[in-house]
């Protein structure tokens, strides 16, 4: 009954028979959902932030808001509504393939009408299932959070990834069994209610009755169904990736043989991008419809019946509406392709910032790393500053010496004389034995006139003001104010620097950026973890008059991608690689550079 080959044959047959009606419904639903969901989610989030009435920029602030009553309510509502959209789309497709044959557009419109008519029941089912899964996950999430706080709460994430301390392995040894138990229970619950949606849609049951029906139908079949569902999910995930790779592999060389004349190259690229966008939409449709039809077919096999439903009433001009929707999608693809192509700027520049100096070639935050950054052609050296136990400004990322030296001592508890005896070069290699932690003053003296600085403040609790004042004073004394950016992960620290020195440029480093939050910081530049950067966010940041830096990017392919996104500054451990990449791009012809930009867009 659940053999894979007959199931695939049935799904393929249903798509072949109903494909026009399925496409029409998919377009109707996508346009309707986009028109409603995007402004609804953005508006409710903006309302939440206004209601809370406090800045939401740093990781800590985001976590505080997420764990507040209003934040939890919004997250639950957003999660529930996201799953509700999936339920609604699958319900409509189930209705399409189970309807009597007729006008394909009328069938699609009828399915959409049915979804709207049964919206209360579908919403109740979605929130029952999502709520049950959240209740199941809550004790496990709390358990993992308490384990993290107990074993790793005072350890910086950077230290965890670089040092891999014993406490990290202890945490993983305790947390992974908890997560595996949760995954097993959640998977069992999901499969138990797997057929509730088709029971509600095809048998017109209520939400509770549909859950009971699903539990009865999936009894003794759950794990065979699980394998089928997993195989489908993997296929849906892999096919778009394979398509992008194939499209890039075939299309790039074809475009590369075109003459480098704008009258030929620009229209060809426009057509190429439009075709890619339409094909991506088609693959999305196939993935959604195949998953919906898998659930429908499994329900038919388990229940032993294939319901044939009368079509819901639909507008008489359903065909006109459907053709309008399809033309709108093609127009959208062409407009988006043109917009993408227009954004391909030939003359682009980006500043190179050596992360903690040339830290791929020398011990981080040392004078040797500074010299390496200068030799690599970096525009800036990024460095971290903090106060010693006797309130001297020193250059160091970690307060604890354990990662670099194996010594379990805090710099905030040591005098400058004691710190001067610490060797932070031996761990990197014999060539750097004897390398010391420099003072900020010593590094300023070495950098002046040779390289600009990106100074990240790392204050201990209640020392932010003292650290900021000393750093600003030393910058003024060394005449480096115009050659420095002061940065921090803390919005309050950036705001304090701007109060003390409005003429010094500042950067706020962010892991995430919520809509509407930019108005809450005076930072001149936003520094993003590179995985969070995307063209839309960059347009928003540039539109606010701010620069954009991304950190920490070490792969040349990723560097090229972020250059083409339009970032202003790339922070990297390998400044020499970025410098070589920029030199290589400067030697490219316009046609070659356009192809590079196209490839980077496809990879994004």
From TrEMBL:
List residues of the GP-PDE domain. Answer: 350-582
Q: Which residues form the signal peptide?
A: none
Q: Does the keyword Transmembrane apply?
A: yes
Keywords annotated in UniProt: Membrane, Transmembrane, Transmembrane helix
- The protein depicted here goes by the name Glycerophosphodiester phosphodiesterase
Q: Where are the transmembrane segments?
A: 21-42, 62-87, 134-152, 159-184, 223-250, 270-299, 320-341
Organism source for this protein? Answer: Salinicola endophyticus
Q: Name one Pfam family in it.
A: GPDPase_memb
Q: Does the keyword Membrane feature in the UniProt annotation?
A: yes
SUPFAM superfamilies assigned: PLC-like phosphodiesterases
């Amino acid at each position: 009954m659940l053999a894979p080959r007959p199931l695939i044959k049935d799904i393929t047959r249903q798509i072949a028979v109903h494909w026009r009606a399925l496409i029409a419904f998919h377009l109707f639903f996508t346009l309707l959902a986009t028109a409603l969901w995007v402004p609804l989610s953005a508006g409710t989030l903006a309302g939440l932030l206004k209601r809370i009435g406090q800045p939401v920029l740093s990781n800590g602030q985001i976590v505080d808001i997420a764990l507040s009553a209003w934040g939890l309510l919004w997250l639950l509502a957003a999660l529930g509504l996201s799953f509700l959209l999936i339920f609604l789309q699958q319900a409509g497709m189930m209705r399409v393939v189970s309807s009597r044959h007729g006008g394909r557009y009328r069938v699609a419109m009828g399915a959409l009408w049915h979804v709207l008519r049964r919206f209360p029941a579908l919403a109740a089912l979605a929130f029952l299932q999502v709520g049950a899964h959240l209740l199941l996950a809550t004790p496990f999430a709390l358990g993992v959070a308490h384990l993290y706080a107990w074993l790793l709460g005072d350890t910086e994430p950077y230290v965890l990834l670089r040092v891999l301390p014993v406490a990290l392995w202890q945490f993983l040894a305790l947390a992974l069994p908890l997560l595996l138990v949760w995954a097993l229970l959640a998977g069992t619950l999901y499969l138990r209610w797997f057929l509730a949606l088709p029971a509600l849609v095809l048998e017109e049951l209520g939400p509770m009755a549909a859950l009971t029906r699903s539990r009865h139908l999936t009894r003794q079949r759950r794990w065979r169904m699980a394998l089928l569902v997993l195989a489908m999910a993997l296929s849906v995930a892999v096919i778009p990736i394979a398509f992008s790779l194939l499209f890039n592999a075939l299309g790039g060389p074809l475009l590369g043989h075109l003459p480098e004349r704008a009258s030929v190259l620009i229209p060809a690229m426009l057509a190429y991008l439009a075709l890619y966008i339409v094909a991506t939409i088609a693959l999305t449709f196939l993935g959604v419809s195949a998953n919906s039809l898998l659930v429908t077919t499994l329900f038919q096999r388990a229940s032993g019946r294939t319901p044939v439903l009368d079509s819901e009433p639909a507008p008489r001009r359903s065909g006109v509406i459907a053709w309008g929707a399809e033309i709108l999608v093609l127009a959208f693809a062409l407009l988006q392709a043109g917009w993408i192509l227009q954004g391909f700027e030939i003359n682009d520049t980006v500043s190179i910032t050596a992360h903690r100096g040339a830290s791929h070639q020398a011990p981080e935050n040392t004078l040797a790393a500074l010299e390496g950054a200068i030799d690599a052609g970096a525009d800036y050296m990024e460095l971290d500053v903090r106060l010693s136990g006797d309130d001297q400004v020193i250059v160091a990322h970690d307060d604890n010496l354990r990662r670099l030296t194996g010594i379990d001592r805090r710099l905030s508890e040591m005098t400058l004389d004691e710190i001067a005896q610490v060797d932070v070069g031996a761990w990197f290699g014999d060539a750097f034995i004897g390398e010391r932690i420099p003072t900020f003053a010593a590094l300023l003296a070495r950098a002046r006139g040779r390289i600009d600085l990106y100074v990240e403040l790392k204050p201990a609790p209640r020392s932010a003001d003292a650290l900021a004042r000393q750093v600003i004073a030393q910058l003024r004394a060394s005449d480096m104010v115009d050659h420095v950016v002061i940065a921090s992960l803390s919005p309050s620290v950036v705001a304090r620097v701007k109060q003390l020195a409005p003429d010094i440029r500042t950067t706020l480093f962010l892991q995430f950026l919520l809509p509407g939050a930019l108005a809450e910081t005076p930072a001149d530049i936003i520094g993003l973890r590179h995985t969070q950067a995307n063209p839309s966010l960059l347009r928003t940041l540039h539109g606010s008059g701010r620069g954009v830096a991304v950190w920490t990017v070490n792969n040349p392919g990723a560097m090229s991608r972020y250059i083409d996104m339009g970032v202003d500054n790339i922070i990297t451990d390998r400044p020499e690689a970025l410098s070589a990449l920029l030199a290589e791009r400067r030697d490219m012809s316009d046609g070659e550079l356009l192809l590079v930009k196209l490839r980077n867009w496809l990879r994004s």
